[in-house]
Amino acid sequence: MTQNNKVLLVDDELHITRNLEKVIPWEMLGLEVAGTAKNGVEALDLLEQNKADLILCDIRMPVMDGLELVRRIREQGLDLDVIMLSGYQDFTYTRAAIQFGVKDYVLKPIPYDELTGVIARVMNEQRARRRKAKDEERKIGQMIDMANEKILYDVLMDYTAITPDHLLMAGVEGQIDEPAYTVIVLDLNVGSEDAQDWREWTAKERKMWNYSIISVLRRTLQKAALPHAVIQTRDGEWCVLIQNASQTLSQEQMAEWTRHLLAAVRSEAAHRLNAGIFARQAALTDLAVAYKTVQRGMQLSINGDGLAFFGGEKSAAVEPERIMWDTAERLVSGLKRGDPDKVNDELSRLADQLQHAGEIPTERLLAMLNFVALHLMRELKEAGLLPRDQEEVFWRKLDGRFGVKDLLAAIRQASSVGVARSTDKRKHSHRQMGDAKGFIDRNLFRDLSVEEAASFVGLSTSHFSLLFKQTYGETFIEYVTRERMERAKSLLAETALSVSQIAKEVGYAERRYFTKVFMKYTGQNPSEFRSSRQGGQIAETEPDDL
To answer: Which residues carry this modification: 4-aspartylphosphate (predicted)?
Structure first.
């Protein structure tokens, strides 16, 4: 049942407020009389105790008249509408009241039918205005969620540093104080017989399927009103982050929610996923470690199935698996960087580990290498370094249950193709990053986003972020902030421009925020810095410098 809006009646003539209470069809108008007052002072007291959406108010009253009441209401920023009641002789006052934002006025003696129509119109306008504001708020909330998911993706992939200083530069420093997250990784076992049809799908079909999984997960979490993010980390793998706003979830609660998500996917997407959960809550700064811990644990759980916890005291990987996995991670890193020497070193190390596997049963050794090969294949595919025909070679080796030597040969072959493609990409990427850097340097004076810079060179935001960090050794935000601060330092030392003007020159619309970042970067506010660089001259001091 919809709750009625509240109306407050203010008039020093008692019979008028009584007639208004009785004659106006308040319930039909969706309103309820919250109280009556004889003057503005009483009305303000009532407003402190109870919220009102509409006030019907006389102009001339003792103690505090209607004009002063409206002025106080606007001064306090109260979200309500006012309809004035006035006599003919008060028309001058009525015009003044309209300047204070009064919605309408009705002349006394009050024509109740006309007043009813005025109230209905004013309230309809108010409700429409509030619905629009709520829609805008919802849209902004969705945009913020998208921005947060972009930040969280970069954090999970370890593309960006998470420190108070870095978050300040990015303008999202409040993130550091956010509650911890429950980290759940959902993964399709791409090497299983159940996924055989998935392996035969086209890239477009897989993309649509991945998106459908994301939609299922988001709908399920939205129904439960859980603050969350659903991030696709690679083809057939997703990371679900549930923000623990009020309380820490127990492992039983984590497992219950994970089973709920798995069931929803199974029901709507017709594929069975496995799930890994980080055994404890993870802060923003620990998300990358938590994600990699769960991902590695799931891949190395040779006999694992369904749902498991990783990252607890007793969940460390068995030593041979851990050593082999670390080698695979370094191999992937070398391939993505287009470093043939690193790739050859890690392939030799992998072969040596297999040769000196000792008493490890062949079945277990083959399973370990199988998981390494799958991980390598998925990472290469995600980076665009594995052609479709090479992917099919991998599947044939895995499905045919070839021996260790055959599987190692497939890994070598894929690595050879991957490093060649990566080297070509690296040359092209260096050109792209050079173009991107020039674009950024030319546009430091205005608001500039990583999405815009990525679009300029024709890359996705996530891939651009990775390449930029690899090329220049710092993130997009770190580079932009450093360049802006260095320009600001030069302008402060060498020109007489005001701090406000310099802030705008280096891309900050708000002087206060520019000062905050500058102090974090240099340890001084802009005026202090200018004074120290201009021979101790008395520099201008602006309010926001203090």
So the answer is: 58
